[in-house]
Design a protein that fits this description.
It is built from 16 helices and 20 strands. With 461 residues, the chain is α+β, with helices and mostly antiparallel strands. 41% of the residues are buried. Its main location: cytoplasm.
């Protein structure tokens, strides 16, 4: 690291001691060991690492808007961009946003057109997805290697889901107060912003010594410990190399970001109708007693939606679950519907009953479900309204729908037998392990068998 950059960094009161080498080293590389950075040099260095629209916004902040642009930027401003985006206050991040959009941050009366905010958010989200792909961390690889991809259309939907409530209803203008309110309740966007700029300032584009002869081969050096992915680790698809995914990584990230923090680290594959067959009994046998789960459904019209079930699934005439439960839609829009607290109708599962509904339900009430999968596999229902979840609207294309795909994932660590039995006692639910005849039959049909110490995959001949 050059002495010039280090001295500039040490004099910058904004930077914490641990940040000095990061920002100084980045500045040295881009400025070519001088005291100023040229716009062209910065774009050549960072350009491949982000969405082109974000590159334009960054140059607006660093060099000024068109018509009043400086040819160079000095260390102080370069450090401000890092600090404000990675760990800045809400006020500082709004200042970056306003400067990036060519607005005056000092004015309290500033109004910004909603489409500009939406495009800014989309540029950050797109850059975030590009960053995790380029970094190639273990979470990303665990999904990408099994057939999951990043789809541009889904990035746009994710960005829209993060930006849509920045405006007050009935207006297309965003005030500074609107932006402050929005950022305060949008931790996902703030984490993406932090990750993108951590990625840029940690980025080291250096020649690969082994291939230096051709003068072109390069590699990115980005320390993984500095960057935490919001994607969970995918577990359980080791033997399914070409998994028939009907969701993309933007959609999985959207769901994961709404889960309780303790369950965001890992997703465990439990069931896929494309792999395990179109059987309700097989579905039950693979998801019961597995702890918290995410259910994802695609209907015959291509709508994708589902729900987060915080309790283990178990046969019962009673509702189980808690206020952490939510429903969501991924296509045609991405939205999450959290609990209203109005009732506790979060999870229902029953089978072979004469007087009770047979199937899996989340939200609403009997025959008026937020989401219902019937025990006669292949049909489901989503009502027009649901008092269990805030802001709910009908998830499926039509109230009664035909199922194209169903997936279920366990989230977080699988509970121990003792933990699960404790939950069953509180809820009155029947665990697979209670010896119930229906439960044993379900396990048998799903290719699993019950043993005295629990249950596991049935031995093959």
């Amino acid at each position: 690291m050059g002495n010039s950059s280090t001295k500039l960094a040490e004099k910058c009161s904004l930077l914490a001691k641990s940040e000095v080498p990061v920002v100084a080293s980045s500045f040295k590389l881009v400025s070519k060991n001088s005291e100023r950075i040229k716009e062209d040099d910065l774009m050549k260095f960072w350009g491949s690492q982000m969405d082109p629209r974000l590159a334009q916004y960054i140059t607006n902040f660093l060099f000024g808007p068109l018509g009043a642009r400086s040819p160079v930027v000095e260390f102080q401003r370069f450090a401000e961009l890092y600090v404000y985006c990675v760990r800045g206050t809400i006020d500082e991040r709004i200042n970056v946003l306003l400067c990036s959009l060519g607005q005056q941050p000092e004015s309290e009366s500033t109004e910004i057109a909603y489409p500009l905010i939406k495009e800014y958010v989309e540029a950050v989200v797109s850059s975030y997805m590009r960053a995790i792909r380029l970094e190639g961390g273990p979470q990303y690889k665990s999904w990408e290697s099994r057939g999951f991809r990043i789809v541009k259309d889904c990035i746009q939907k994710l960005a829209e889901s993060l930006a849509y409530d920045v405006v007050q209803q009935g207006t297309q203008k965003v005030t500074r107060a609107d932006a402050e309110r929005w950022l305060h309740k949008n931790p996902t966007f703030l984490k993406m912003l932090e990750h993108v700029f951590s990625h840029l300032y940690h980025y080291r584009n250096v020649k690969n010594a082994a291939s230096e002869a051709d003068g072109n081969a390069r590699k990115s050096i980005i320390p993984q410990e500095a960057l935490q992915s919001m994607l969970p680790y995918c577990e359980g698809l080791q033997y399914v190399p070409d998994y028939p995914a009907f969701t993309d990584l933007s959609q999985m990230l959207f769901i994961n970001s709404n889960l309780p923090g303790t369950q965001q680290n890992k997703w465990r594959f439990l069931f896929s109708s494309q792999i395990h067959g179109e059987s309700f009994s097989t579905l039950l046998g693979r998801i019961m007693d597995q702890g918290s789960t995410v259910v994802i459904v695609e209907d015959a019209n291509g709508y994708i939606f589902g729900g987060y079930a915080p309790d283990s699934w178990a046969l019962s005439p009673n509702y189980v679950g808690n206020e952490n439960s939510f429903l969501f839609t991924l296509r045609p829009k991405m939205r999450c519907f959290s609990s209203t607290g109005y009732n506790d109708h979060y999870q229902y599962l029953n089978l072979h009953q004469q007087t009770m509904p047979n199937g899996m339900g989340m939200g609403g009430q009997h025959n008026y479900w937020g989401m219902w999968l019937d025990s006669e596999y292949g049909i489901g229902e989503c009502s027009e309204s649901c008092t269990t979840y805030k802001g709910y609207f009908q998830l499926s294309a039509t109230k009664k729908f035909n199922i194209r795909n169903v997936e279920v994932w366990g989230v977080g660590d699988k509970p121990t037998k003792e933990e699960d039995e404790g939950e069953d006692e509180k809820s009155g639910a029947r665990s697979v392990l209670d010896g119930n005849a229906d439960s044993k039959a379900i396990l048998k049909m799903s290719g699993r068998e019950q043993y005295s110490d629990g249950y596991r995959e049935e031995p093959k001949d």
